[in-house]
Amino acid sequence: MSSDQELYGRRGRVVTDMDAKDITRVEELAYDLKIQEVMTRDLVVASPTMKMREMLELLRNRRISGAPVLAGDKLVGILSLEDLVRAMSANDLDADVDKYMAKVLITVNGYESLVRALETFTRFKVGRLPVTDEHGKLIGMITKGDITRGILLAIQKDYQEEEVRRYRASHLFEDIVSDRTTIVMRYNIKKDNFLLGGNASSNIKRALVRLGATPQIARRCGIAIYEAEMNLIIHTTHGGRIKVEIEPQQIIMTASDDGPGIENVDLAVQPGYSTATNEVREMGFGAGMGLFNIKRIVDRMELTSTLGQGTRLRMIIFLERNESLGEATADQTSQGESAE
Amino acid sequence: MNLQTIMDELGLTCLTQGRNFTTITPTSGYASDLLSCVMAGAKSDGLWVTLQAHLNIIAIAALLELSAIIITENAQVEPAVVQKANEQGVTLLATPLSTFEVVGKLWALGLRAD
Questions:
Q1: DSSP for A2-24?
Q2: Which residues of A touch B50 (CB under 8 A)?
Q3: CATH superfamily ID and name for A33-148
Q4: How would you classify residue A2: left for phi > 0, otherwise alpha for psi between -120 and 50, otherwise beta?
Q5: Statement: residue B49 has pLDDT above 50
Q6: Are B7 and B27 in contact (CB under 8 A)?
Q7: Is B39 part of the contact surface with chain A (CB cutoff 8 Å)?
Q8: Helix (H, G, I), strand (E, B), or coil: what is residue B61?
Q9: Which of A5, A66, A159, B38 is the least buried, fewest Cβ under 10 Å from its Cβ?
Q10: Which ipTM did the prediction report?
Q11: Number of structural domains, chain B?
């Protein structure tokens, strides 16, 4: 892991570019969650002077597969089912726990991330680890099962948070009372920045879904914005701006730039007409279908351009009663779960 | 026919994170290297066969909610593209076959344009 390969992201943690491509939400959580957040705190403990036979009963009754061994306050070993099996096969169940417990103690700190515990499980081929605090005091135990449960809970929480966001946002239009409420989103689009191409459209699509738009409406807006966004990236002098005005009954999307302007607007809208360079075409753009696609997908399209000054593309999608933002969700609320 | 069957029949390599592909059922197919044509022609939950492997194909697949992109002729896919695909939940499949061959095989398996 050389430092020049490292890139910083995901809440400041270091990720090498070798593994960055493989990172999933689960792996991300393995870094974000602390061992003490998922470990078992309610501990069943053994003492070194207990008999293995008692240990067998303890594990059986509590339905656990191992326990830390404490002498007073001090962690002195770990006893697992495997140790019991060894004692049983030696017909030695009257021996002390001290004889069979693992004394080489591998512990993890509670404030470390789950990844540390996972690495330790793999490296030492153990199934459970005692967790200590910064003073070395035992505060819990962690197993792979705890990790799975912790990650599943966190994923469920993610999901619920998104649902809550969506729910709150979809009530925005009802909660704000005015004669005409408009939510305006603005995006600056840089010339030639193909890497960011599609970001504005996916952000807008997500916002619309949260505001209660139907998947079809969100998709139509996403497609229209994507084409407009790529036009700004490919064809403008300095890039441009996208403005999305969301109202309960309509969505108005405007893409504007300050040049170079379109010579023949009617021609530009013809399917297949393109002024794109070969370089851009090699990437699959410049099919000459962008404006034509927009025209097909929105309810109204207005394209105005002055050569040397700039272009303004206005796209409107009207929302039918059953698609409208705010009111449609209000109907659903009164039928289903009551909000207040 | 689910995506796992298609991957097995065509010997496709999955570049993105694994998921249960038997639960994904592509409903149609579309082939083009021109992104605006894909925007206009590909159906949601469909498969898209293309030679393009740059970052912008991910935005298209996410916007259209495609079931997967099949990248043909082993076109070079940058790690950043795979990362973006994982973030957006887009499945990328790779094959040494040409677009023509892939489409032919998909058609033979019963997949249609819509």
A1: -GGGEEEETTTEEEEHHHHTT--
A2: 284
A3: CBS-domain (3.10.580.10)
A4: beta
A5: yes
A6: no
A7: yes
A8: helix
A9: A159
A10: 0.71
A11: 1
